[in-house]
Design the sequence.
C-alpha cells in the first residue's frame, strides 16, 4: 500500500493520526476518469506522479474511474496513497464494491471512505474488520452537502473514523463553522473536495493587475491561487482537484511547492472570488 514518507517536491502532510503521509495536492477522478480507454487519462496520472503528487481519490459512484485509475497506476501503485469509497444501499452491494476495489489495487486500499454517508451504520463495522485484517489502513467519511455536516460531526465524535472529505473553497465555507474545528481537535485528516467550485470559480479570473501579488507566493494563475487558498488552512491535509488535462494537472501540482498564504492573503483571494 501507500507511502509512509515523502515522494517528490510537493509538500506532504500527515493524514490525521494515521501513518500516511500525503501530498497536499492530490488528484480526484470524478467526471474525468470515467472513460472507456485508460489511455485517454494515462498522461494525467503520469504527469501528477512525475510532479510529486502521491494521493489519488476515486469512488464506484464515478463509473469506470476506480478501475481506470488502477490501470493507469499499474506497477506504481505501491508508491502512492489510494483513497476510494463504498457507495451502496446494502451490505451485499457494498461488500462487492470493496472486493473489486481491493483486487484492482493489489489487495489493499489506504483510505476507505463511506461516500456521502450512504448506509454508514452498515458499512462501517465491515471496514473496521478489514482494517483489523490489514486490508485497509484508515477509514473516512464524505459528504458534499453542508446540510449533512452535523451528522458527519456526530460520527467523528465516535472516534471511529480517521478522515473526512468535504467541499471547501471561497464560495463554500460552511465547514469552517464547526466541522473543521472539530476535525482539528480530534486529529482527523481533512480531504478538500471542490477546491475550484467544480470549475465554476476558475472559469473567470480577476484582472492580471489584481493577481500580481501571487508571484510573492510562487504562483502564476488564478486556479493556483484557489488551490493554495484551501491548503493554506493548516487544518486541511490534501486538496483533490479533478482534471483530465495533463497540463492542468502539472499546474495544480506546482501549488504543492508554493508558499502558503497568511490570513490576509487568504481573505484577499476570497474577496476577489466574491467579485467574479
Sequence:
Amino acid at each position: 500500500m501507500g507511502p509512509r514518507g515523502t515522494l517528490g517536491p510537493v509538500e506532504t502532510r500527515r493524514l490525521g493520526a494515521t501513518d500516511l503521509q500525503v501530498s497536499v495536492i492530490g488528484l480526484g477522478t470524478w467526471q474525468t476518469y470515467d472513460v472507456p480507454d485508460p489511455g485517454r487519462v494515462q498522461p494525467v496520472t503520469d504527469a501528477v506522479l512525475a510532479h510529486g503528487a502521491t494521493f489519488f481519490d476515486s469512488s464506484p459512484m464515478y463509473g469506470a474511474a476506480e478501475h481506470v485509475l488502477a490501470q493507469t497506476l499499474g506497477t506504481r501503485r505501491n508508491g502512492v496513497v489510494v483513497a476510494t469509497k463504498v457507495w451502496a444501499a446494502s451490505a451485499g452491494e457494498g461488500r462487492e464494491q470493496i472486493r473489486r476495489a481491493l483486487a484492482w489495487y493489489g489487495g489493499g486500499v489506504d483510505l476507505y471512505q463511506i461516500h456521502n454517508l450512504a448506509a454508514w451504520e452498515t458499512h462501517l463495522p465491515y471496514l473496521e474488520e478489514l482494517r483489523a485484517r490489514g486490508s485497509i489502513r484508515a477509514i473516512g467519511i464524505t459528504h458534499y452537502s453542508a446540510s449533512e455536516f452535523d451528522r458527519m460531526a456526530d460520527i467523528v465524535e465516535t472516534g471511529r473514523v480517521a478522515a473526512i472529505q468535504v467541499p471547501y473553497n471561497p464560495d463554500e465555507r460552511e465547514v469552517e463553522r464547526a466541522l473543521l474545528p472539530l476535525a482539528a481537535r480530534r486529529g482527523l485528516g481533512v480531504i478538500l473536495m471542490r477546491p475550484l467550485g467544480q470549475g465554476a470559480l476558475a472559469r473567470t479570473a480577476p484582472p492580471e493587475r489584481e493577481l500580481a501579488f501571487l508571484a510573492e507566493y510562487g504562483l502564476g494563475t488564478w486556479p493556483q491561487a484557489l488551490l493554495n487558498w484551501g491548503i493554506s488552512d493548516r487544518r486541511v491535509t490534501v486538496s483533490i482537484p479533478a482534471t483530465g488535462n495533463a497540463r492542468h494537472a502539472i499546474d495544480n501540482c506546482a501549488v504543492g511547492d508554493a508558499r502558503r498564504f497568511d490570513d490576509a492573503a487568504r481573505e484577499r483571494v476570497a474577496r476577489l472570488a466574491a467579485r467574479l
Summary: The chain has one domain: 12-275. The longest strand covers residues 136-142. Confidence is low (pLDDT under 50) at residues 4-8. The beta strands are 12-14, 21-23, 27-28, 55-57, 81-86, 109-114, 136-142, 163-167, 189-193, 238-239.
